[in-house]
Specification:
4 helices; four-stranded antiparallel beta sheet; 24% helix; elongated; Umud Fragment, subunit A; single chain; 12 strands
Length: 200
């Protein structure tokens, strides 16, 4: 191989390696792309939409009511365990996930924070109540009805989460409150499709 060709090949390989490292580091510590897997957050988020999830959002403050969060599959939701891959395969998967080319092996959910630690949440007469006061939910389409549940008191270090599509969402009504430590981050922007680009 000619020296110039060899040098070009080495430089290209180094650049690709550097890009992989940057993508993996960004995904692990700063932001993650997430593909909407179900209709549970319609009409705001449709199946196939892509959102950017900030991993740093809750370094400055605790989750807030109304935030859209991505979190690991809760124990009571019955998700499959991820495969045990080698280091090289995991790095390749992380790069593909960072580029939105594949979904993570660990199943993740996306829902809206409804109730915070220590609060009592319930639904009656089609509406959600926090501590006995009706919750105003401007993000829901007019006429949305929430099926009755509760009351449930959210424990310390937990969050009560629900999908906006109240009639088609497996959420805390099914698997109970989630642990705050399982929250991957806050969805901050819809980036795909381009015509629906918006902050969340």
């Amino acid at each position: 191989m000619h020296p110039k060709t060899r040098r070009a090949v080495i430089e290209t390989a180094l650049l690709i390696g550097f890009a992989v490292v940057i993508a993996v580091v960004l995904r692990a510590f700063v932001a993650q792309a997430f593909r909407i897997p179900s209709a549970s957050m319609e009409p705001q988020l449709h199946v196939g939409d892509r959102v950017v999830v900030s991993r740093l959002a809750y370094d400055a403050h605790e989750p807030r009511r109304g935030d859209i969060v991505v979190f690991d599959c809760p124990p009571r939701a019955g998700c499959d365990a991820p495969p045990d891959d080698g280091v090289v395969v995991r790095a390749g998967k992380a790069l593909a996930e960072a580029l939105l080319l594949r979904q993570p092996d660990v199943e993740e959910f996306i829902k809206r924070v409804i109730a915070l630690p220590g609060e009592t949440v319930e639904a009656r007469d089609g509406h959600v109540f926090i501590g006995g006061r009706r919750l105003v939910e401007p993000y829901l389409p007019p006429g949305t009805v929430t099926s009755d549940f509760g009351p449930v008191t959210v424990g310390e270090g937990q969050l009560w989460v629900m999908g906006d599509n109240r009639g088609n969402s497996a959420d805390s009504r099914v698997f109970g409150p989630i642990a705050e430590r399982t929250v991957v981050g806050r969805a901050i922007m819809r980036v795909w499709p381009p015509g629906r680009l918006a902050f969340l």
